From TrEMBL:
Top-level taxon of the source organism: Bacteria
GO MF term list: 4 iron, 4 sulfur cluster binding; metal ion binding
Keywords annotated in UniProt: 4Fe-4S, Iron, Iron-sulfur, Metal-binding
Organism: Hungatella hathewayi WAL-18680
SUPFAM superfamilies reported in the protein's UniProt record: 4Fe-4S ferredoxins
Domain (4Fe-4S ferredoxin-type): residue spans on this chain: 188-216, 217-246
Name by which UniProt lists this protein: Ferredoxin
InterPro entries linked: 4Fe4S_Fe-S-bd, 4Fe4S_Fe_S_CS, DUF362, PSI_iron-sulfur_center
Length: 368
């Protein structure tokens, strides 16, 4: 396979061009407007709005640049993400919208609306058959699959389970419904934390497989009947139902690659990744630590695999930030992400995506 083009610009500015203007020039040069017909097409921009308390998420100003460009071409554009599997500030659509607005993602700042793609409780999904090695039918937020065109805008950072959180993580994990996230994260099924359970029965009423019983005001889940859809997690008012998160990191990465394939197949797509505030952990955390390397720049490509690879290589060329968690780790792997999270293997996602034909590991870096 020939090399894919990845376009790059650093964060240096001039009196004549600010960062937002530079981002616009980058995506134009990368061919987003020439390569995709946006006219009268529903366009989803997948972004992470940031967990409340986290300050390393992308500023909404960046998204407005992409929104305005798409609208200038007649596109019907919206910003989107799916609800989280874990307990936090984005567990349901109402809290998720509150978090997005709190962090500046509102129509006045971005020029478009926010849609939580998998609905109020994370159960509004489209089943996408892919016949992958691990996933046979991906469960994707419905609004994302209803869109004609898919754009990803990613904050590139570290991640405690996947090594780094890049374009494929933003797409694959981020676009999964609650059941989809369950499928990626778990080899097992949800369980009840009995100390939190009050026996209200909300989980039992919403279980389509009669897997939940209430005994002495405590719920329990019969794993022989449970299909692992995760609906009980979404409806529990006490956050008493939890997932095991017991899948191996390598298989988790491969599942993310397969979910990314499910989201992107059979429609136009384009991807932008900003290597800025490279925190060691995901933006799903309600805090962010010192960036592990200095800010690098902005990248764009039609190939999500090449884009992730270019961002990894760029980060690994950077010096370690003094005082960061990476500066306290032994540097035995010659790889910043593996040194930060030694139990992860980010290459498994890249290699599996290449195997599936999702993209190219080899790239041609074009600096503008």
């Amino acid at each position: 396979m020939s090399q894919s083009n990845v376009y790059f610009t650093n964060f240096r500015t001039t009196f004549q061009e600010n960062l937002l203007q530079k981002l616009e020039r980058l995506v134009k040069k990368a061919g987003m407007l020439e390569g995709i017909d946006f006219n009268n097409k529903y366009t989803a921009i997948k972004i992470h709005f940031g967990e409340p308390g986290n300050l390393s998420y992308l500023r909404p100003n960046y998204s407005k640049v992409i929104v305005d460009l798409i609208k200038s071409q007649g596109g019907k554009v919206f910003l989107t993400d799916c609800n989280t599997l874990y307990v936090g500030g984005r567990k349901n659509a109402l809290d998720h919208l509150d978090a997005a607005y709190e962090n500046g993602y509102n129509p006045f700042a971005t020029g478009c609306h926010v849609l939580i793609a998998d609905g109020l409780k994370g159960t509004d999904e489209t089943l996408v058959p892919i016949d992958g090695e691990y996933i046979k039918e991906a469960k994707i937020g419905r609004a994302i699959m209803d869109a004609d065109i898919f754009i990803s805008l990613t904050h590139f950072k570290g991640h405690e389970s996947t090594g780094f959180g890049g374009t494929m993580k933003n797409i694959g994990m981020g676009c999964g419904s609650r059941a989809g996230k369950m499928e990626m994260h778990n080899a097992g099924k949800p369980h009840v934390v009995t100390s939190k359970c009050v026996g209200c029965g909300a989980c039992q009423k919403n279980c389509a497989h009669s897997a939940i019983t209430i005994t002495e005001r405590k719920a329990s889940i019969d794993h022989d009947k449970c299909v692992g859809c995760g609906r009980c997690i979404g409806v529990c008012p006490m956050d008493a139902v939890d997932s095991a998160c017991d899948e191996s990191n390598d298989i988790l990465n491969c599942k993310i690659a397969e979910y990314t394939y499910a989201v992107l197949k059979d429609r136009p797509h384009f991807h932008i990744s900003l290597v800025v505030d490279v925190s060691p952990y995901c933006d799903c955390h309600a805090e962010n630590d010192v960036p592990i390397v200095p800010n690098v720049g902005m990248f764009a490509s039609f190939d999500p695999v090449a884009l992730d690879m270019a961002c990894v290589d760029a980060v690994n060329r950077q010096p370690v930030t003094p005082g960061s968690i990476l500066s306290e780790k032994p540097h035995t792997h010659h790889d910043h992400f593996t040194d930060t999270h030694p139990d992860t293997n980010w290459e498994s996602a890249i290699d599996h995506a290449v195997k599936m034909g999702l993209g190219n590991k080899e790239y041609n870096l074009i600096t503008i």
